[in-house]
Amino acid sequence: MPKIGTVSGVTGGTGALVEVNNPPLLTVYHVGGGFKMLTTASHCARIPRAVGSQIRGIHDLLNVSGKPIISYGPPGRSASGGHVATVFGCTGFLGRYLVAKLAKAGTQVIVPYREEDEKRHLKVMGDLGQIVPMEWDIRRPDQIAECLRHSDTVYNLVGREYETKNFTFGSVHVDGAERIAQIAAESGVSRLVHVSHLNASALSTSAFYKSKAEGEERVKAAFPSATIVRPATMYGYEDRFLNNIAEWPIWWKLNHMKTKVRPVHVMDVAQALSNIFEHPSFPGTVNLPGPSELTYEYVLTLVSSVTYRPPSRIPVVPKRIALLAARAAQNIWWPALSPDEVERRYINDADVPGDWDKVGVEPTEIEDSAITYLRRYRSATNSHRAN
Ligand SMILES: NC(=O)c1ccc[n+]([C@@H]2O[C@H](COP(=O)([O-])OP(=O)(O)OC[C@H]3O[C@@H](n4cnc5c(N)ncnc54)[C@H](OP(=O)(O)O)[C@@H]3O)[C@@H](O)[C@H]2O)c1
Q1: Contacts of 146 (CB under 8 A, 6+ apart)
Q2: Which GO terms describe its molecular function (predicted)?
Q3: What is the dihedral of CA 115, 120, 126, 128, to 10 degrees?
Q4: 195 CB near ligand 1 (under 6 Å)
Q5: pLDDT per residue over 164-221, tens digit each?
């Protein structure tokens, strides 16, 4: 027979939920000013925040304001773990998958955005009030500080593959990253996860990779316990890899298709980032290359065989011509292949071991999911073929 008890002080905001007795017999939902629901709730098991690692850090007990972190609610999307995370760069390709994973685990996620429409899809990834959009500008320290004021964890996913008239690689990957790290350190954020690139190197011939390496150094100087995550080229629905190969095979034939890549599934990277959240502290660098090293030739053949399109017969464009074309393309007003991207098409992915075991993820092979992302490039007659 369930016991009914009086619960006082349940004023912790919309959606607060309290369980009394152990195992829980009574659950009271407090929704916007009145008790709306009373249930016996053995299904409402409470999940402790650090369930993955069973290790607790201070940020699992107190939030940045020094208040105790209390998890409540049923498991899953409607849970509230008491944690708040800010995901800078959430409006991009990787960002949406990370926000979905964090929100699904009951973390309140601050989603800084620049363009109103870019954050609309994020809003529905969490329960009411769990996804909090905030407008920001990477050049405005006050707005960065406002975005991470209540957060115990900050992710920086901000990056750009090409420069614009307003932002150079340096202003985004170096100055912007340093600014976020400094403000996070000053604000008492306990975990900073900075996303760089597997090929980040101060000696690289690519300005993009160089800026990523310099950004890492600045972040480490400003926030010594930061986790630097280095994924290889990612693929998924919104990628600029499989989609681009399917649309513009000519630009992937550079270097006679001999360049080696280690493509990684965006879901695996998002899972790794979300698993880091479970660790009290994760300083250092985490390399996340895909499980296999492939040549562009192999990937072009894979795309061609999955889409049932004949391989491109266009001859290989010499580097000089490709650079000239890319420079000329910078005069149009939509993003086109940049000279630095041409340069990157000649650089093999770094031959370093992956740190997947550290983050508890087993990376998937590209052949296993390529069909999911490439089926749309098939002709109508081929679209329903099994594989
Ligand atoms: N995609 C890959 O294959 C790959 C591989 C390795 C590493 N990475 C790195 O992983 C991170 C996420 O990659 P992604 O593919 O998700 O990138 P993405 O789709 O290009 O998204 C980049 C994000 O950064 C934001 N951003 C770019 N320039 C900005 C600026 N000047 N001010 C404020 N925000 C700015 C974008 O915001 P807006 O929506 O407002 O533009 C967007 O949210 C990046 O750091 C990238 O370099 C990517």
Answers
A1: 134, 136
A2: protein-containing complex binding
A3: 100
A4: yes
A5: 989 999 999 999 999 999 999 999 999 999 999 999 999 999 999 999 999 999 999 9
β-bridge mates for residue 270, sequence order: none
Q: Report the first-to-last Cα separation within the chain, whole angstroms.
A: 55
Domain extent listing, the chain? 1-45, 58-295+347-375
Query: Does the beta carbon of 91 lie inside 6 Å of ligand 1?
Result: yes
* Ligand 1 geometric centre to CA of 158 (Å): 4
Sheet with 131-135: list strands edge to edge.
131-135, 108-113, 84-88, 153-156, 191-195, 227-231, 284-288
Cα separation values, 34 from 17, 26, 82, Å: 12, 16, 21
Other C-beta atoms closer than 10 Å to the C-beta of 372 total 13
Please write the tens of the pLDDT for every residue from 220-246: 999 999 999 999 999 999 999 999 999
Whole-angstrom Cα Rg for the chain: 23
CATH class, range 58-295+347-375:
alpha beta
Closest residue (by CA) to atom 18 of ligand 1? 92
Residue 386 DSSP symbol: -
**Across 15-19, 165-169, 194-198, 250-254, least confident range:** 15-19
Q: In testing the pocket of ligand 1, which one of 157, 219, 285 has its CB within 8 Å of the most ligand atoms? A: 157
Residue 287 is predicted with a pLDDT of: 98
**85/147 Cα distance (integer angstroms):** 10
Amino acid identity, residue 320?
A: R
Which tens digit of pLDDT belongs to each residue from 327-346? 999 999 888 999 999 999 99
Residues 6+ apart with CB under 8 A from 310: 304
How far apart CA 369 and CA 376 sit, in angstroms, is 13
Q: How many CB atoms lie within 10 A of CB 333?
A: 6
